[in-house]
User: Fold these one by one.
Assistant:
Number 1:
Amino acid sequence: MNPGCRPWLRWALWAAIALLLLILPFATEALLGRSWVRILAVALLFVMLALGLNIVVGFAGLLDLGYIAFFAVGAYSYALLASPQFGIHWPVLVLLPLGAALAALFGILIGAPTLRLRGDYLAIVTLGFGEIIRVLLNNLNRPVNITNGPQGITLIDPVQIGGLSLAKTQEFAGLTFSAAHNYYYLFLLFALLTIVVSLRLQHSRIGRAWEAIRDDELAAAAMGIHTRNLKLLAFAMGATFGGVAGGLFAAFQGFVSPESFHLIDSIMVLCMVVLGGMGNVAGVVLGAVLLTALPEALRYIGPLQQRLLGEVLIDPADLRMLLFGLALVLMMLLRPQGLWPVRRKSQTAETADVS
Amino acid sequence: MEIFTQQLINGLVLGSIYALVALGYTMVYGILGLINFAHGDITMIGALVALTVVQALAAAGVPAPLVLVLAGGCAILVCSLLGLSIERVAYRPLRRAPRLAPLITAIGVSILLQYSAALIWGKQYIALPKLIEPAAINIGGAQMTTLQLAIFVLACAIMAVLLWFIKASRMGRAMRATEQNPDVAGLMGVNTNAVIAFTFVLGSAIGAVAGLMVVLYYGIGHYFMGFMLGLKAFTAAVLGGIGNVGGAVMGGLLLGIIESMASGYIGDLTGGVLGSNYRDIFAFLVLVLVLVIKPSGLMGQAGGDRA
């Protein structure tokens, strides 16, 4: 945003963006069908996740390869306390903060012993942690059935606002709000909140301290920054975002299973952050939206083959992943700093190691 | 005691395979500081190529030893070329890029390899035709098959030759020089690009042999088999101190033993509450513990953190 431009122009621009976001699900439904409204909602969830990871990777420069574990903690804490699994049905307003707090606790638990490791050691420990969580979720159905194992937890309560269930189709002012629409607006609210928090954090004292740690930890420590506490804070903060997104995810899907929390999902979120432009909030949002939409768009390859070649030669699901892999490689070769990189103040910082 | 010896044998065999794959990770990491995520999948390609060769030749009635040599040869050839081209296309242009960029390309290459394999070989498990009936040797009440023995001996031989090669040969010296400081090595007349390419080829070739071993040991191959194998091998490399070739060997063997012991004893120790389905956790638990106590890995130098 150019600070030099006239204020009324900026307001007009913001108003246009706000309007666009508000009518987006209806426009999408008209153009692409209702399944894309759902994809929009999922994209917003991933915006939250990517921004959470961006705090850890982009701001503080800590490579976390197990981020999805915090998402899993949030999702399962919501699922267990709002489903017939234990017969507990707590309200959303209790569960979301609880999920966030639990995720933050896990972030501190995993972060405290490992944050003095740097770079790739941290990466592999977080990766290991992610796998541990998934294996636990898979196996904690015996001897006491807690997580219901690989079958996952079903019939999770949807979000209810004042007796209004978001999972039900609502008619309002002549418009039909399907479950996907309702959740889109809910997630939009949370995503915007995440964006604002991220932006405020970035330019705060804490954000600048993170940046200093990322660029040179030793120098940062010499300047009086308490590096361990701040790194822990970054970890816990990122985890909190993941936990909230996880709770929303569980409510949205109505079903969670360990299958949703594979390493590939952690990698996907990391790719969103790096592809969009690490450290830049706008870039990360762009990366999250693109990487959610791209694989979905690639689903149309099957019918396209059918039309062009008369038969489906290559399994579309495989081809989708192939193209995704290719896109990752090409992206990085052509634009290693990401689509929308953060503007650095000095030239030297651009080539500095980030991790 | 018999269980102990048995699990020790299983662990050593499994560990020697981990160690071979870990070598590929650690050599590349030592020189480039890059987690070559695709290495596990290169191993997978080697395994599936070997499987295909065995299937084709065994049906044609070629004698078993020749089949194995040819399968190994083909796998090594394919993987070496693969390693060489991946380095050239995906990693070399990014050598001066931000640190996470090559990691993302590595992930991209890994996905590419997996799904190329899915297209070529399909997604089902591929079974290895019966080649030889391995005889069992009795060691202190425990059984060790000749196949296990062969895998273990061959793996040890490869590791010994590699350690000697890096220590004593001209190329090995160039590799060590490049690892310490690529720029200065270049000034001293080392062709660092060639050395890095060679490192990839060497790691991939060893990975191909490991792939063949996995196929022989478990009797099946699958397009996704490189993932867990690569993860374990990388864990082994970190366990031993990443970048350290001797450490990778030790880390691999140790990880194999820990895993076998854990999956052999956990049921008894916990009264059947925890089963061997927790096996995959142990690798990571041990890793976390080791790193917390000694962050540079078992054999890494103090302060050797290059990240």
Number 2:
Amino acid sequence: MEYWSAFFVGGLICGGAQLLIDYKFSQIQVVIGLVLVGVVLGALGVYDWLVDIGGMGALLPMSGFGYWLIKGVIATTEQNVIAAGANVFRLVGVEIVAMIVLSFFTALICKPKG
Amino acid sequence: MRLRDNYRQAVKKFQPKPSYVANSLKAFFIGGGLSVVAEVLRAQFRMNMPSLTAEQAVLLLFISAAVVLTAIGVYDDFSQFAGAGSTVLITGFANSLASAALEHRSEGVVNGIAGQMFKVGGAALVYGIVAAYLFGLVHFMR
């Protein structure tokens, strides 16, 4: 059952994004929009509910990235301005660091194709 | 300004119409399928990890897969086929970093790879971080 809900949550986000891309917007604009939607819904507490339902289907799109950005700031006991700056990267730091390091070494080793 | 509008009007007849339904159905099924794969992996990881670590591990696997597929040149074809089903996911973000770095490798290690890596993906990162910081501050002041 949880697989079906993950399928529908992830699929609906991707399908809606594809509609927006076909309609008017560029891919970068849609990705930025999804991140902002994730941040806003995460701040309002709606995205927690979506993650409860969809699991990885809600975390895998870029809105899940935005949700983790805001969740790192909000969901701690250190509620002050200095800690907020560090906590932005508390949850997504793993992903960002992995992307940068892996991309760096692939670019060193491989040649561009096509 | 009028010239550009006229040009758009004149060109519009010759542009192919995007097939909305087929494209978004493809994105729907591919995005949903990848989500199910991620959910299965999370269920496997959860048996011997805390749930947050399991989620991060799944995302790490997806990122590594996307970067490796970009390196061997398969991801572009897949992304062409899947549309938003692959670009909107975290794999698309990883692909944008890796492909920008690969593309500029001939310009050198500093100016090419390191300098141009965030050429495409940086925009999403900037907006996300600014919004998250502002909303976090608003949350504290409440």
